Amino acid sequence: MYSSGGAEAESESESERNRMGDDKEEQGSSFKSWAKQTEESYQLQLALALRLSSHSASSSDHPSSSAQTLTHRFWVDGCLQYSDKIIDGFYLIHGMDVYTWTISTDLQNVGMIPSFESLMSIEPSDDLSILVVAVDKSRDPGLRELQNRVASLSNNWITTKDATDQLANLVCNRMGGGSLTEENLGTRWKECTQLLKSCLHSVILPIGSLPIGLCVHRALLFKVLADLINLPCRIAKGCKYCRKDVGASCIVQFGSDRWKCFH
């Protein structure tokens, strides 16, 4: 009897060791798969950065230094201050890692960011992850129309609160209205941008052409319009309604010690 019990216990112990071994093997396989995907993603980003830097080095036309500086700062930090004015030539890059770009380029010869011209050279079918939202009223009739409308309407906005609320409603309605969930808005954004890239044959989308916008695009458009009417506004990284890394919020200053946040 004792011998039989010992054999049974030994069998159970062996089964447990086998299960543990299988679990470790599965975890090891999962880690290798994750590591492989990470390496492949890095290599793709590196190849893209090198390609863009090559285009940038051969390009002679660049945005103005102030627009390029703001573009770089927002790309890196996701923030703009009250004193910063978003001017024509500013653009927001999606799908290109800042760190990968920095380590793969000669910044003295190429610049701090992929040039606008190098981004224009990308075919929409080449890389579906790259997307650029541009601010330039000379190339964007939708933005010109919106700025003219705001300039006219702002004559009737008496207080800072009134101007803030009116701009917030205008931007929200312009970029798809409210959304019940972040996932719903993200799905609509993806569908919209795929259609626009196909129609425009470019990865560069004028901000005034966007019928849908995530919080970062809404924040950018809000500040563009706020700058137009001298409404003190800054963009801060992060949004309480959005878990994405590109989340952003606008903060409007009321007097010397009061602020209102717009998401």
UniProtKB/TrEMBL annotation:
<dbReference type="Pfam" id="PF14381">
    <property type="entry name" value="EDR1_CTR1_ARMC3_pept"/>
</dbReference>
<dbReference type="GO" id="GO:0016301">
    <property type="term" value="F:kinase activity"/>
</dbReference>
<feature type="domain" description="EDR1/CTR1/ARMC3-like peptidase-like">
    <location>
        <begin position="67"/>
        <end position="258"/>
    </location>
</feature>
<protein>
    <submittedName>
        <fullName>Serine/threonine-protein kinase CTR1</fullName>
    </submittedName>
</protein>
<keyword id="KW-0808">Transferase</keyword>
<dbReference type="InterPro" id="IPR052441">
    <property type="entry name" value="Armadillo-Ser/Thr_Kinase"/>
</dbReference>
<dbReference type="InterPro" id="IPR055164">
    <property type="entry name" value="EDR1/CTR1/ARMC3-like_pept-like"/>
</dbReference>
<keyword id="KW-0677">Repeat</keyword>
<keyword id="KW-0418">Kinase</keyword>
<feature type="region of interest" description="Disordered">
    <location>
        <begin position="1"/>
        <end position="36"/>
    </location>
</feature>
